[in-house]
Design goal:
single chain; mainly alpha; 71% helix; transport
Amino acid sequence: MAHAAPADLAATPARTDARKPHLSLLRIVEMNLGFLGLQFSFGLQQGNMVPIYSWLGADEASLPILQLAGPMTGLLIQPLVGAMSDRTDSRFGRRTPYFLIGAILCSLGLLLMPHSSSLLMAASLLWLLDAGNNTTMEPYRAYVSDRLNADQHEIGFLSQSAFTGLAQCMAFLSPSILVYWFGVDRNAVDAHNIPTITHISFLIGAVLSICTILWSVLRVPELPTTPDERERIAASEKTAGAALREIVQAIVEMPRAMRQMAWMSLFQWYGFSIYWSYAALSIGRSAFGTADKSSALFRDAVLTTQQLGAFYNLIGFAAAFAMVPLARRFGASRMHMVALMLCALSLLMLPGVGAGSAHAPAIFTTLAMPELGSHLALMIPALGLGLGWASIMGNPYVILARAIPPERTGVYMGIFNMMIVVPMLINGLTFGWIYRHVLNADPRHAISFAALLLFCAGLTMIRVRDIPEDNRRAA
């Protein structure tokens, strides 16, 4: 049962601040450009970590636990960084120091990852990479909430969603672009079976990660803190213990709308964790008829899965902007419910996609997606996946930004990330057993199970109430 928010939160007035100028679309795009580099990194992980682990000899059932770095670092870092950034008042700003530290760590992880010579090395570098990503992610969410008034939250957070779609489209598609536009041999591999196209893609990601963050913070700097904010920050404890106490207190006083989204997050992120782990393996079996990780057919299946990821993220990029007026008219919670249902239906269709035609239409060759074009039936699941992903990266944050008090933006964004990483952590610890003993070690069954979880996530959104932008209180 959801708990009512404390009276002081319920009486909080609408978040309108004369210091926050109404930003143009161009400025909002520039302030979110850093998300391009950040999400390019996440896209590289989603599209390449399972193949890298597979090329290094990982067992299929061990894949979820090998990817625990993401949820563990998110669980440990994001709430702590959120609470600390709320208490930071440096010459560079409140959030900017965390952007820059995270971007440097992320770039180092991306540079080194393709040179992994063992599962242990790859898993260790994933911890470094995810530590950098998570150090940047939460302050970036808080930065948008800090910088924009409530009437621009939809465009602010859905712009982040759009950049997520664009960046991950680019990340998923970069190996295919290298093959079809620049003639890099798809079968050229190093001594550990990691392809040359993977090495180059991660190098591009390392450059983007640092450059786009710098562009955002230089072009749209944080607003200076007010005297009241500086006084509050100066009076607050700066120790890790104080930050932890703040996190615990914030959880106890969590706004009702945020509590209501907990079940949605559990089903949603457990399901997507399954998809990221088993999509390439499922498509390898259904569309290419292979389970041999060292075969050329499996490399083709990896490219096809990456192209599918690029296509649904491209749809997500366009859908994020289209959702802005729809979310205002129908409510972010209802939009998210519909999007999750369509995403579930798409995942349910994916394991049934078999071998397609022998020749891809010319348009797909131009887009560096010939494998996807040869399996046209994959286009239909991509539509629902794109709509679902656009909503996941935007609409919950619209609901959240209106529910939380401004002085706790950082810590609550970090706590909301716990609702993302805890399901991933549970997935890593439990899904290996489910995969072996319930799903008969078949990746196609794993994708169907993920579809069921996304459907459950959509159902839970029936209980979530939207908070009007002119009446920001715990509903």
